Amino acid sequence: MAKRRAQRSRAPGLLERPGIWFNQHLQSIVATLGRLFDTPLPTGMTVAVIGISLSLPAALYVLTDNLRTMAGGWDQTAAVSLFLQYETSDSAAAVVADKLRGWPEIAQVQLVTREQALAEFRALGGFEAALEQIKTNPLPVVLAIYPRTADSTPARMEALQTKLLALPEADFTRMDTLWLQRFQAILDLVQSAALLLGGLLGMGVLLIVGNTIRLEILNRRNEIEIMELVGATAAFIRRPFLYAGVWYGLLGGLTAWLLVSLAVLLLQHPVSRLASLYRSEFPLSGLGLAATGVILASSILLGLIGSWIAVNRHLRGAEPG
Fold first, then answer.
1. Is 78-176 a domain of CATH 3.30.70.3040?
2. pLDDT band at 2; cut points 50, 70, 90
3. Strands 80-84 and 106-112, how do they pair?
4. Which one, out of 34, 58, 146, 208, has a CA that is 20 to 30 A from the CA of 242?
5. What region does 125 belong to: left with phi over 0, alpha with psi -120 to 50, or beta?
6. Rounded to an integer, what distance in angstroms lies between the CA atom of residue 208 and that of residue 314?
7. What are phi and psi of 120, to 5 degrees?
8. 244 Cβ partners below 8 Å, 6+ apart?
9. Where are the beta strands (DSSP E) in the chain?
């Protein structure tokens, strides 16, 4: 009998400790989640606030990502339009085009003859009466020049324009992608604003989780005092509150993902209808796998940090002076 009691009271072995540690944490995770579901209204309100806070910068990210995708399709337009002298014939323009195709910074040259330019002008509509009064075609020959990707920077584009204007057949040039570069700059500004907004709202999430955990600590003050009296360690007391912060962050991140995905789904039909008016298609893209992982990891980390701060303040305040 004494031998059996000795076996029962022996300390766990080294190989048994990881399993005991895992079981303790697993029990704490499940118990913390059950405690949150026992108060569905306060938990739901906290999770909703966290989700809305995180969904705002996530929505801005989705917006800029879709606009960049849309702008990527606009890169197919001519980067530089070279208008030749009016006296330049189509055959002479073809010779100039062949010459430009040999330049290392140019990827493609498209010749637009006078007749093609006039046909495109007629297709615009609204100028039929004016065109009937014109006896000769007043439009010059145009060369649509597409530079290589490595030579599409603003500095190299300006150098290319200067080089094109030095041609004896050149009249003037127009950079068709200048507006696109400005649009890209606006998108960069919006993306920076989204990062700043995300940082500010992240601080708000810290405050929300920290205040929620602080209220939970106050509600369980008697339970915590009893655990301290029986010799519970700080890590044991801190554990359920930390997992509560993790759950708040995870549920808030999932809520943010759900809100953004729902917004993309609701906007897909109006965007498709607008794109159809331009004889195009543009499927909206939501949060990808990487972006979703970043949101969930960030929300969990914010919840963990917020709960850590709240619990540590209580433990420091409970220590004897």
1. yes
2. very low
3. unpaired
4. 58
5. left
6. 17
7. -65, -35
8. 32, 35, 36, 213, 216, 307
9. 80-84, 106-112, 142-147, 170-175
Question: Half-sphere exposure of 243 toward its Cβ, with a 13 Å CA cutoff?
Answer: 18
Q: Which residue, chain included where needed, has tokens 């705002």? A: 56
Q: How many CB atoms lie within 10 A of CB 114?
A: 19
Tell me the CA distances in angstroms from 208 to 40, 243, 293, one per residue in order. 17, 15, 22
Buried b (16+ CB within 10 A) or exposed e, 79-105: bbbbbbeeebeeeebeebbeebeebeb
Express each pLDDT in 125-147 by its tens digit: 556 666 666 777 778 888 888 88
| Residue range 85-96, pLDDT digits in tens | 888 888 898 999
What single-letter amino acid sits at 236?
Answer: F
In 3-state terms, what secondary structure has residue 269?
A: helix
Domain ranges of the chain: 31-73+182-318, 78-176
